[in-house]
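Issue 218. Parser rejects a valid record. Input:
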Amino acid sequence: MTTKGVKIVNVRNRSFPAKVLIYSTFAVVLTIGMKEIAPILTTIIYSIFIAVLFTPLARWLKRKGVPGELSVILVILLLIVVILFFGIIAIKAAQDFGTQIPNYQAQLTAFVNSLANYIPSYEGFSVRSVARSIVSIAVSLMTSVINGIVNAGTTVGIITVTAAFLIIDATNAPEKTDPEIGKQSELQLRLSNFNKKLVKFIVIRAEVNIVIAFTISLLLFIVGIDYAVLWGVLIFLLSYIPYIGLVIASIPPIMLALFKYGPLGALVVIVIIFVVDALAENILFPSMMGKSMQLSPAFLFIALLYWNFVFGLGGVLLSIPLTLVLKILLESFEETKWLARLMGPVEYMGNREINSIR
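Output the parser choked on:
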């Protein structure tokens, strides 16, 4: 097929190097564009995810006979109540904890200094100075997280309002599309399949994070760790960050256990967090989501760096959801399935899949 003498070739018929060049060029242009409008995009993305979580509830109420407008109002009120309830508790606990940070820093410094006395020092290398640097980094990290929670009110308000409007529109979406199901094109069917997978992932990922956060928070409360609800909220949010998220969220409760009960108490908290997370991530999430949604650990780490570059801290929290959204989107089109396979673990790529890339 030609247009004005220029031959148009389907991307599928191009060689593997040509595909890489085309898609990498598109990715660079898209990255630059997203980075320029990152503040707007992050707000929209968070709003979409919240709307996806709450829209099924509004549709369920409609199926149970609740009028459409009333079902939407009830769901939006529930969203506001949930955000206000946990927001007020988290902010109040964060403020209280923030006032205690200097005391915790002094206790941690004293503990590390006492520990350093048992470690030999070498010429040009001071264990005590290294320990102080570690304490400074840990305290600075905790302070940044606490300040971020306290100062997130305005952003959360904007996201809530945007999500409310999206819920209103999404609840009525089936009524707009159902009469035209028979006329859907192949592209529309692919996009519909993509939407179903996206909703499934967001709902299941949120459910697993809630299970992890609630279980750990409850166990921390039982063993007497202060601000257990705050650490639950923090664990819920940072569990979206692969590998390092839960580690960062675990530092404050481990420190509090160390100060209150000593090394044995800190070890108990570490075991609680590790066991709960391991069971949820290795048994609960795969059983609910399936192997098709798994990602290569190396690719996940690269994605973490990429989304941090594009969106900053907001991108770090969204790294797993956004990466899986990208994988689902690529799987929805025959021309890009080979890219989706590259994102998965090596053990799930057979010879047939590898050959199909070429």
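Fixed in the parser; the record now loads. The chain has a mean pLDDT of 75.
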